[in-house]
Amino acid sequence: MSNARPLQWCHYDFKAMGSPCSISLYAPDAQQGANTIQQAVADIVRLENKFSRYQKNNPLFHVNQAAANGASIAIDDEFRSLLNYADTCYQQSNGLFDITAGALRHVWDFSSTNLPQQSDIEHALENVGWTSVTVENNQLSFGKPHMEIDFGGIVKEYAADSAANICLAQGTRHGIVNLGGDIKAIGPHPDGKPWHVNIRDPEHPGKHMGSLELINEGIATSGNYERFIDINGKRYCHILSPKTGWPVTGLSSVTVKASQCVIAGSACTIAMLMEDKGPDWLRNLGVEFLHQ
Amino acid sequence: MEREPAVVAVTNKKGHKSEALTALMGAALALPGINAQAAEQGYRSDQVSFGYHHTEYKESGDRMSVTADQLSITVPIGQSLETNFTATKDVTSGASPVVNFLDGEGKPHQFLETGASIEDQRDIYEGTLSYYGDGSLTSIKLGTSEEDDYESNYSNISVKIDINDKLTNLSFGYGHSDDKVWNSYNPNVLLEEPSIFNNRRKDEFSIGIGQVINRDTILQFSVTYVNSEGFLSDPYKKSVVVDEALIYSPELLHFLGFTDVSDFRDLDNPILNVAGLFSTLTDLGVVQFLNDSGITAALNKLFDIPEISAFVFGLEKDNRPESRNQIISLLRLSHYFESTNSALHADYRYSDDDWGVYSHTMELKWNVGLGLGWQVSPGVRYYTQHSAYFYDTFFETIPEHGYLTSDYRLAGFGAISKKLEISKSFGRDFTLFVHYEEYDRRYDFELGDQTNGGELDDYTFSLVSVSFDASF
Amino acid sequence: MPKLSITCLTFALISTSMLSGCTVEKVRVWQRGHLANPVMTRDRSSAQATLEQHTYSAKESTAGGYGTGAGGCGCN
């Protein structure tokens, strides 16, 4: 269908989920564009408030209190479906993608310059294990104490998908949501051309390691340049293996393109966790990806 | 640190989905922030789709044939609304049974109404508005159907709700139609009678449940209650009632010089062959001549021919109760077979009503995916019904309740259908579809004890449909 | 319509007990690949399915039961 009126390009930069974010879209007029962006941002803030590990008294905080006590807690549908998604990731990665690896965060301090003691890591590993968690009719139960849930690789990506859907629901047909590198496109450009996204090279600032084209799809990147500890010239990635309790090695960065940003996010995290076998796993998965 | 060169790996651009990706997508689509509809339609949600459909239907012998054409357009409005507009035109021609006359052996013979009087066009216009909510689908439909002798205005609303992690769905529906029915009177045709205008209305309530049984099986069950009120008879059809016919009356027969009247009343051995008389008159072109020459029209002006024919031949108008209550239950099982990439759909439908017509329908349809967008679906269907309590091929007297019909659709019979469908999708935006069916209706196909009905209404039909759907 | 109600109720009860009697597996979202296969959609063309039902309804006394459907027609 042709659209007689020219579309207005609207762009908004903001900070959320600890990252620089932006929403860009084509709208019939600036007012409508601003309204749409406002609603999308409001939803991103809502998800940040709900799932942030750095806030007290939010739903994730209460869940993690229950996790710490090995207790049981009621959760809402959105929380449950995210756990269901995490469960799928766990199954599909043979247990490598485990949101209960959050318990390892207590021993790995990425602001410090010291490695944790192996005995502390082993002790923390005892508190990891998705199989100890059960979800039954919106009731989440932890089978042992000292557990912790970490939605890294899921929530920010899900927020990008959700924001894009809100824009779509508001009538946007062409736009792009970028939450700190987790990107979800709405349609193509108005002329039908795909969105062209350059993937920056973490080793050489200002350079690109490749580019991907998006129509409606999402991309996410996982890499050791985001957060890490540098100890004696060795870089320790923030992605921790639930099997060894140590940061993963092998790949330094993976970018995945998928129909949804949340799928891209979990796929690249799983690839990082698979270390050397990551690229093969992604190839079998059947997605486009870049890695280094 | 050793630096590896950037590697770009692009695989499976052809759209192949691994089991792992299917699993991730399935779980992602269950997230509330991700609209499954939008995710599936994606870029397509902006598209307008068209559908065109053509059907050729032909019954055996001199009975009717139908040609139907349908054009449909679907336009999305925003993210969660969709409208559909459908226009259908079908043209019916050929003959339809009007009455069964008795022959010299007292057996009923069928008199078909032929020619232009049954050339009928039906125009249907339907508009549907659908709302895709969060785990629900609500549709409202308004429609109108017009024929030379029938008009229907109808509306319905249906709601489908997903519950229990989308493992169960519940559906509710209500439909209402207000119909006007009359006969298209042509004074130039013998035995036609002046138009009568009548109303009927129908209310329909349905509830249904769908349940995922396991990874390969879905079971659905629904119950529909239909209440029809008003003029439910057929304004064209008539029944022979022997006691009402002057030609069978003992007084007349005495007058005509027949002495053995009791023999004549014995229907196994009547003397007058009305069916033979009529078919002879028709075959000789006498009926045609009367109609074409204007004699029929002149006679129609002078006499009330239908009243005379009722008096002489005992032709009573089709007369059905003014109310009908039906309950229809449907059980549908769908099972996927991985080894053949196919699915078997088995339906069983049971219906009962207060006209005494209960029916069983069993249907099997096997959808086989052949890859590259091809799908082949063979199917069989068996339908059987018990006759209505006021149905007979002809009547000796008017029943005490006063209702009577010789409409073959209320007879006891069975019907077996063999079907084949072949479809091919070209990309996501174009689908071509062919359907073929052979339907064999026989009174002795009826399940269980034979009820009223006869082989004179046995017929077959074949049907070919071609359709395509395209999105732009 | 006492007879009608009884027969139908019996059928409804049998069907319901079948539904509740058979073991229903808690099929997880990622296990629904087979159910989402296009062959599991009974009718590829819904227009065809509607017209098919319309043809039967003009020839048989039982019409519908597959969801609230179309309006009346002089053919029945």
Summarize the structure.
The complex is a heterotrimer of chains A (292), B (472) and C (76). Chain B is mainly beta.
What does this structure look like?
Helices cover 32% and strands 26% of the residues of chain A. Chain A is α+β, with helices and mostly antiparallel strands and 292 residues long. Chain B has helices at residues 19-29, 36-41, 250-255, 261-265, 274-283, 286-293, 295-302, 305-313, and strands at residues 7-9, 49-59, 65-77, 81-93, 96-102, 108-113, 120-133, 136-146, 150-163, 168-181, 198-214, 217-230, 238-240, 315-317, 323-337, 342-353, 359-371, 374-385, 413-426, 430-442, 459-471. A 16-stranded antiparallel beta barrel of chain B has the order 2-3-4-7-8-9-10-11-12-15-16-17-18-19-20-21. In chain B, strands 5-6 form a two-stranded antiparallel ribbon. The longest helix of chain B is centred in the first third of the chain and has 11 residues, at 19-29. Chain C is an all-alpha fold. The longest helix of chain C is centred in the N-terminal third of the chain and has 20 residues, at 2-21. Chain C is elongated. The chains are: A alpha+beta (292), B mainly beta (472), C mainly alpha (76). Chains in contact: A-B, A-C, B-C. At the A-B interface, helix 3, helix 5, helix 6, helix 7 and strand 14 of A face strand 1 and helix 1 of B.
